[in-house]
């Protein structure tokens, strides 16, 4: 690979992966710096790299030109023939590198506008990129009536698909198992010990729904723009999880103490309303959460009257900077948060600002001034996402909430058709 010499070039650096995606500033399987041209070209050689037909080289190039840095990302080369002709890689036109406030894995991103993470789900990379959650959702702050299991997650035709099922229809389970059986997820369990197995007892039935969630395990960032092209699930009492979750829990591990951002969600019910208020699949909602007692205080809604959010794909995005958080859908802004004199916590009602002391060591964006990571999932039921309307078969405060949800199976499971799944086409994170 080479670029022609031009006066002013001082260095060329390259990072590449073979048959695996890469984006700046991730370090590749192969990397190198070229400090001087040879025969009029800046050339990077890999004489020991053995290529086969249809191999794909994914790479990005950084060039220092007149003391400024220029980067070209998302480059690919597919091996289609072998001959003695030199395949030249010429550096496309680039814009000047603008300073970035984004950090990735604790290090500054090179340039604003750089793609720092991208996955189009041609495959599910569980070795380096994603952790497929495998646990009972007992440590989930929304207490959904589910377990996350690996078998609910797959990729098909360039899409990540998470499709829920009933636990009682799984091998070795039946309706009686929900009252008296045990669920053992110790093999491959990704949660703390209390989430790896449980036995049904009395009203504490097994989680009725088996679903899925993936969390990025090797990519963390602070500040950036997130884009998720997805088709949200439809089906009673389902809801998607398109989340930014804290990586190090800088401000504490209690629920929401270190923050969480719902990039977008919509309840799966096609018909869910009270008087003139619609709560169903036509209502998008989301936003930052930083206090358990007032978790909904900063949640905003975006309602449409034409069609449900789960009917087709939409692009849900988040812009996160040291000064603001902005939520968009299909390029249209629907919610914005700017911290005031008291920071992000000052946006909460006064009765909810008792937690402000934990954020005193942070910036005005605290707790959203630390590195977060992406998590994509699908949940059902729980005690936070569905208002206690007459048609809801359980009450959030009831000790038998999960039992009542399961006992109403005949009323809600019939609504879970082909669209009762979360489909994600791609995820992209760009430096700001």
Automatic annotation (TrEMBL):
Assigned keywords, A-Z: Immunity, Innate immunity
InterPro entries: Beta-glucanase-like (IPR000757), BGBP_N (IPR031756), BGBP_N_sf (IPR043030), ConA-like_dom_sf (IPR013320), Glycosyl_Hydrlase_16 (IPR050546)
Pfam families on file: CBM39 (PF15886), Glyco_hydro_16 (PF00722)
Segments forming domain GH16: 84-432
GO molecular function: carbohydrate binding; hydrolase activity, hydrolyzing O-glycosyl compounds
GO biological process: carbohydrate metabolic process; innate immune response
Leader peptide range in chain numbering: none
CBM39 domain boundaries: 1-84
Protein family per UniProt: Belongs to the insect beta-1,3-glucan binding protein family.
PANTHER family tied to this protein: GLYCOSYL HYDROLASE-RELATED, GRAM-NEGATIVE BACTERIA-BINDING PROTEIN 1-RELATED
The protein's name: Gram negative bacteria binding protein 3
């Amino acid at each position: 690979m080479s670029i022609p010499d031009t006066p002013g070039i001082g260095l060329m650096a390259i990072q590449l992966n073979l048959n695996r995606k890469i984006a700046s500033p991730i370090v590749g399987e192969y990397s190198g710096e070229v400090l001087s041209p040879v025969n009029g070209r800046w050339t990077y050689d890999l004489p020991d790299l053995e290529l086969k037909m249809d191999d794909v080289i994914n790479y990005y190039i950084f060039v220092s030109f007149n003391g400024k840095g220029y980067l070209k990302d998302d480059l690919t080369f597919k091996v289609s023939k072998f001959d003695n002709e030199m395949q030249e890689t010429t550096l496309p036109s680039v814009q000047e590198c603008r300073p970035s406030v984004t950090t990735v894995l604790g290090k500054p991103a090179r340039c604003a506008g750089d793609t720092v993470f991208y996955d189009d789900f041609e495959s599910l990379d569980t070795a380096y990129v994603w952790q497929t959650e495998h646990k009972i959702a007992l440590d989930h702050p929304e207490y959904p009536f589910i377990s996350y299991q690996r078998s609910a997650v797959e990729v098909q035709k360039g899409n990540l698909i998470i499709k829920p099922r009933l636990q009682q229809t799984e091998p070795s389970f039946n309706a009686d198992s929900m009252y008296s059986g045990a669920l053992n997820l110790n093999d491959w369990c990704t949660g703390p010990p209390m989430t790896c197995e449980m036995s049904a007892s009395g009203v504490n039935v097994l989680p009725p729904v088996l679903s899925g969630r993936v969390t990025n395990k090797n990519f963390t960032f602070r500040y950036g723009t997130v884009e998720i092209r997805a088709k949200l699930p439809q089906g009673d009492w389902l809801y998607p999880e398109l989340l930014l979750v804290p990586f190090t829990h800088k401000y504490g591990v209690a629920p929401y103490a270190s923050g969480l951002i719902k990039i977008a969600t919509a309840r799966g019910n096609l018909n869910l309303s009270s008087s003139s208020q619609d709560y169903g699949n036509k209502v998008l909602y989301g936003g930052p959460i930083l206090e358990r007692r007032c978790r909904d205080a900063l949640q905003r809604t975006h309602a449409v009257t034409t069609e449900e959010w789960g009917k087709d794909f939409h692009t849900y995005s988040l812009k996160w900077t040291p000064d603001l958080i902005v939520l968009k859908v299909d390029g249209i802004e629907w919610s914005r948060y700017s911290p005031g004199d008291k920071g992000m916590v000052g946006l909460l009602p006064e009765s909810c600002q008792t937690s402000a002391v934990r954020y005193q060591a942070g910036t005005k964006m605290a707790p959203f001034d630390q590195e977060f990571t992406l998590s994509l999932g699908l949940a059902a039921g729980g005690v936070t996402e569905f208002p206690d309307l007459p048609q809801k078969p359980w009450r959030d405060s009831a000790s038998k909430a999960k039992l009542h949800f399961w006992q109403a199976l005949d009323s809600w499971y019939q609504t879970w058709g082909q669209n009762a799944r979360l489909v994600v086409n791609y995820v992209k994170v760009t430096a700001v």
